Amino acid sequence: MSFSDLCFRLVGWIDKIISPPDTQYESATPPEEPKHGPLLPKYASLRNAVESKLEHLVRHEIPEHRELAENDSLELYYVEIEATTDEGQALLDAFCKEFNPAARQQWVRKFFGSNATVRLDCLAGVFSSADMPSTTGLDLHSQILNQGTPAVYQVRLWSKWVQALDASSHSTAIVRGSAVVLRIRDSQGQHDDIRRETYPVKLGRQSEITVEGTFASAGHCTLHWRGGRVELEDHSKNGTWIDGVRLHQQSKPLSLGKHQIKLGKGQGEVKDYPEIELDILAETTPISQPTPLNTHTPIASDMQALLAVLSAQDATGNPHIDVLRLPFSIGRGAGSGYVTPPAHAGVSGLHLVIESFNDQGAEVLNEANAKNGTALGGVLQGERFFWPFGEEITLAPKWKNAPPVSILLKRPGGQP
């Protein structure tokens, strides 16, 4: 063997040692990940269809709407997926079988993250068109949102806009309720012991009670008397903090006692972010309530005494609602005596009406009889039923995609 042949073989041997086989190069190449995280290859077309629809909503449709109504927010209830081919339907069925409803719901929540323009507290999940629950009481937001994406899947978003809260969104009647005492610290100094017993009480830079601060809105928030309790309603751009928790474009019922309110931000100097100490006193001297916004004409009545107490279990906790006048309505509608939270999507806008009382309980008109129903003692009730004191009813027990509301009827003294 010549010296040149030996050198040639030596170079080839060294090259094999320092260079791995071609197959190693291929297997070491990481797969390309989509924008929103790792993607299961077999579900790529389905996931891309849904996420493209949601992204178009966030990037285009919401900004276009908010150009004219900058404080509106969108409530998203359902993501509906419809396959346009047999192959696509088979893949969609496999997807729904592999991932349970909670996992699919979490996928959508993760996509939106902390986007404040989309409210997900009423999101019931992601469904195939064949498995869609009843949409009674819900609105299909718009035809724009409902135009299916091309290709294998069409995606529909069941949603509706929540308009910025203003004077026209609720009754403007002056009502009397629990006394509140406000102590304000803002850019103008400290203002102590501002007392109010009538509602609504409006706070902001250009409101009934002036609160000055760089990040306070002209009409920042309002205290209402609804369903026998005080509620704080935020209308602002930057939000209102109640006991350290942000409230934005929503209402929150408040318990008796003291609450720390911060306008614009949870922390910061009062010249920028005013502070309000709100003390809700126990005494309640109601003289009237707003007329419930329902189809029933209120019975003329001068009754001002406490008729009953509703002890509820809902998404906000365990609120107690005083029944002060008849008829008394319960539902998700803003004019109800007891307004159930949006998270309980199965509750109707007008779910039921308490029409009268005797010493044993209440006569009730069950408006939701033909929809998601009302149960007493675990038994679904008809159009009218009697609700005894000390007994609990369940609103929307037939609705399986959102939690029900439970309400215990108590006598005026708080005893069952």
TrEMBL record:
Transmembrane regions listed in the UniProt entry: none
Domain of life: Bacteria
Domain FHA: 201-247
Pfam families: FHA (PF00498)
InterPro entries in the record: FHA_dom, SMAD_FHA_dom_sf
Name this polypeptide is given: FHA domain-containing protein
